[in-house]
Amino acid sequence: MANRSPLDDPHNASHAWARYRWLLRRMALATLLVIAAVDGWLYAGVGLVSIHLYIATSLGVGLTMMLMAALMGLVFLSSGTGHDESIEDRLDSSHWDDPEIDLAARQRARQREGLFPPGV
Fold it and tell me: Could you give the 3-state DSSP secondary structure of residue 115?
């Protein structure tokens, strides 16, 4: 059974989510600066071609950076709060000799029961 996560505690969870929101606000500011730099570089290189080019570039850069920030922020939140250590790791090397988790034995048992043909 899985251990209790530190995020189950409301105080720890509120602190962790506040830090996550702080990270996203900082990344939103950095994203705006990068968008301005990219649009400036693009304007210096090709001039005013079409407003749609600048809108598409800004949306592409902005959404990519914010998606990256959101996903990496969740990784930092999970790792920083100890949530990662609260899971039950069934692939841990200490369980490899456990007959309940022996995958080869399970596969042989399924073959004997006719659940799938040999060699699959």
Answer: coil
44 vs 107, more confident: 44
Asked if 3 and 88 touch (Cβ cutoff 8 Å), the reply is yes
Largest CA distance in the chain: 71
Q: Which residue has the tokens 């301005």?
A: 36
The Cα–Cα gap between 104 and 63 comes to 44
Task: Please give, one letter per residue, the 3-state secondary structure of 30-63.
Answer: HHHHHHHHHHHHHHHHHCCCCHHHHHHHHHHHHH
CA distances from 40 to 31, 35, 52 (A): 14, 8, 15
Kindly tell me if the per-residue pLDDT of 101 is higher than 60: no
